[in-house]
Amino acid sequence: MADSRSFTPTLPIGSARCQCSGCARYFSSVASFDAHRVGEGDARHCLTEAAMLARGMGVNDKGYWVTKLWEGGAFPKGEAA
After folding, report:
1. In sequence order, what E strands does the chain have?
2. How much is the pTM?
């Protein structure tokens, strides 16, 4: 799978899907977006891809990062055809 930062979907108005302005990755929900941000105040930052994968996050079949991988609905980044 290509780097998720090169993925450029349409984000429909009213959708919970979002893009991070810090790392440019796309997320399936506000919860998955929040899960990838850590730290407090000026030290707040995006997790690395490796850190997100270590927490059980992954990229779904539509190319969005998700909080939890579900069998058949999402896959770890790099394992999709």
Report:
1. 18-19, 26-27, 37-38, 45-46, 58-60, 65-66, 74-75
2. 0.73
Give the SS3 label for residue 75.
strand
Q: What DSSP character marks residue 30?
A: H
Q: 28-79: per-residue pLDDT in tens?
A: 999 999 999 999 999 999 999 999 999 999 998 888 999 987 765 555 555 4
Spatial distance between the Cα atoms of 54 and 64, rounded to a whole number of angstroms: 17
Question: Can you say whether residue 24 is alpha, beta or left, with left for phi > 0 and alpha for psi between -120 and 50 degrees?
Answer: left
C-alpha to C-alpha distance for 70 and 58, rounded to whole angstroms: 9
Summarize the confidence of residues 18-37 as an average pLDDT. Answer: 94
For the chain, the domains span 4-75
